[in-house]
Structures are given as C-alpha cells and as structure tokens.
Amino acid sequence: MVNEFQQYGKVIIFFGIALVIIGIFLLFWDKIPFIGKLPGDIYIKKKNFTFYFPIVTSIILSLIISLILYLIRK
C-alpha cells in the first residue's frame, strides 16, 4: 500500500516538473530565435489567406522530447 502511494507521488512530481518546464518554455517562446522559422516550415500568404505549418520545427521538437523521455526512462 505504501509503495503504491509512493509511485503516485513520483508521477505527480514528474507531471508538476513537466508543467513548470512547459510554462517556462511558453513564457520565452517569442525570444527563441529559431522556433517556427526553420527552413522547411510551410508558410503561404495570399491576399485574404495565411497558412502556416511548422513541420520541421515540429519534427525537431518531437525528437528532443523523445530523447528526454528516453533518458528519463533509462
């Protein structure tokens, strides 16, 4: 029973730390120079229409998050 609560405690602490990191990242989103402006990001602007899809940025962020999660599990 005690081990079960300890496991829940670890999960809650992990999610709390993850939320703090995400919050800090979002606060400084505009100050990071390369986010959303990498070569390969799709940006189409016409008269009354703008389409933006940061595909390369998404791939790089996915790789970074996957690496972090891999290192945490190891």
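That was protein one. Protein two is written in the same sequence-then-structure order:
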Amino acid sequence: MDFEKLLNGIDNCPCGKAHKCDIEKIIIKKDAIKELKRLLSSYSNILLVADTNTYEICGERVKAILGDAVKDELIYPGVPLLVPDENAIKALNDSVKSETDIIIAVGSGVINDLCKLISYRRSRPYCIVATAPSMDGYASSVSAVIEGNMKITYAAHSPKFIIADLDVLKNAPYEMIQAGFGDTIGKYSALNDWLLSKIVNGEYFCETVYDMVYSVLQKTAEIGPRLKDRREEDIKLLFESLVIVGIAMAYVGNSRPASGSEHHLSHFFEVVGLLNNEPYLPHGICVAGSAVITQRLREEIIEIQEFESGFKFDREKWERAVRSIYSKAADGVIDLQDKTGYYKRDFASIYKEKWEEIISVFNKAPSSEYMLDLLNSAGISFSEFNSVYSPEKIRNAVFFAKDLKDRYTVLWLYFAMKYKFEE
C-alpha cells in the first residue's frame, strides 16, 4: 500500500476541497516497534499510556526501547472493560505535565480515542502503537468518548506516527480481529447513508473519498475465510484497510465515510448497556450485526412503491419515549435533537420528490444476505447478536438510535415511514 502518496493528500480534488492528513509516518511490518527509537529521538519527556493488558502485550517493550525518555506512565486497569468516560478522560488529562512533549498510546480503540482527544486538547502530538486490527480510528481525526451518558464524537487530530508490529497484530485475540473485519464490512452501510444524505439533506459528498473506501472494502471482504489462519499478509491487509478508512475520515474532517446508521445502532447498544448495566458486544462485531439490520431496513423500503406522508410528529410522545429509553441521558438526547432541528424539517416533500433517486441509492448496497455471508466467513455470529439484544431493544435502536447523533441516515426515513406513536 502506497501510504506515502495517501499522506501527501489531494490538493485539487473534484469535490472542490483540498484533502490532507497530518500523519507523518505509518509503519506496518514485523518488529515495527523497533522503529520507535529513531522516530522519537527528538523527544525527551514522553507520557506512555496503556491498560494492564496492552502494557503486558507490548507496553513494557516500548518502554524498554525508549528508555529514560519515558518520564511518566498512565496504566489503566484492563478489567473491567475500560470505558472512555469522564473519569478516564480526567485521569489522562491530569497525567499530562507541562514538560510532556509527546504521548504514546499503546492499545487500540479506547486508548487511541483517549490519547487522541487529550493530546489535541493539550496541544501535544501523539503516536499510537497498535495492539490489534480491531477498529478504523487509528488514522482518523476524530475521537469517540462518552460524556453525560452520551456517545460523543469530537474533532481531534491524527497521530504523528502509527506503529503496527505484525507479530503483535496477528496474535491479538481473534475476537478483536473479527471486530476489525466487522467494522470494515459496516462501511457498506455507512457509504450508502452518505449517498442518501447527499440527496435528501444536501450534505457535502466526495466521490474520490467514497471510491477510496469502497475499494478497500471490496478487497477486505475477500479475506474473511482466511482470517482464522492469522496469515501475516491477511492481517496486514486488514490493518491497512482500517488505516485507509481513518485517512478518509481525516480527508473530509469527520467520520462520515466510515460511520452511519450501523454505528448509531452500535452506539445505542453501548450507551443503553452502560446505563442499565446490560451486556453489549465489542464495537466492530456490534457494527457488523447492526449493518445487517440497517440493510434490512433499506430492503424493506425498496419494496414500497412510493413514500406515504401520513406521519405526524408528536413532540410530547417522542419525548416520553426518549426519557423511557435513555433515562438519565435523555436530556442530552433531547437537547441534541432540538439543535439539529430534523424533526422540524419538511423531509416528506423531499422524500416524495426524490423517491426514485432514494431507491436507486438503496439498490447500490449489497444485500443483507450477502453481508451475512461475509460475517459468517469470518466466524462472526449474527445469532449471538440476536441473543445479546432482544427484539424490543433492536426495535428501540432502529427507531431511537438516530437521536443520539446529529447525522442524517436511513434511520430518519424509516422512522417517518414506520413508527407509530402510542395513543
């Protein structure tokens, strides 16, 4: 993969925007960790951040390579599962000293998000030493954390360096390899939502970035049956695909090329799980199952000949439902939707006018059966998804996950067509 070219960005994109990525170096190979000494030779006051699991996997080795340059460490507990909430954010923020000149994150999703956010807020560079090919946020310029019981995506910055040692990646727990594959397959849903929002909501769209993500998605879809063998070339391809998706997010300045209705459902399950102390699946695996659900919504809509405009929004009944589902997070959800103003928009006239275009977009997405086959090829069980999440929870997610975000997706159209307020 020609990362040097990707990191140079695109100056004159047909979309009218210049795309850039601030990452200086991406190293994906055996013994990549050894490159840290050279890459960080100009830094003398390093803060190393990990959890007890990732520290044992390669954090100790990172510290040994960098020696006295590592002046401080923050090692989060690895059990129970680290949540990127206010407490975790504060712990990292308090660990950054005035002398700290770079933060090294050793881990994957949560560790990366925390270090990305705090390094951005404290105007420090950071680099990530990846411990699993489990998610697409390594190269992105956004950070997803939980504040006020809400899953919030903040603008941040990309890492200065991404270091991925293939021996570490291929020996990651298989569930994390599956999560990376599932997160990638979820892009079928995310990209379709981006096209839909361009038509319905007039959202900015870049065909170059769209094609870039779709291309790596197609290549990654082929390796599902081989992932269990942990072949170096397949793990490398998976990780490269995840990084390219992150670069795509950096290019457009948000997570739109990688996150749509499938991520909204996944965030719903996580937020409600934390609120109610209920189980939820690892992010990438949950995204994969949620992408099947959202594709089934598109297929259901395709069968309808035309948009029916009988839906009437009832603010009082909607707010009652939101408070019932989101409990102490409800105020944040309601405030967010008051700001987006989507419930006040006359989407019905747009749906009527552009119905054929909308159906054409939905027809571009692969079938839910094809997506199930892809997940099965990597051993990702949709039956497990249905056993962890009850039919009622899935229904609530389909109708109310959209309210967690300010992004237009198929969930808004499906809500307008299918939701019935209780009398």
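The two ends are 57 Å apart (CA to CA). Keep this in mind for the problem set.
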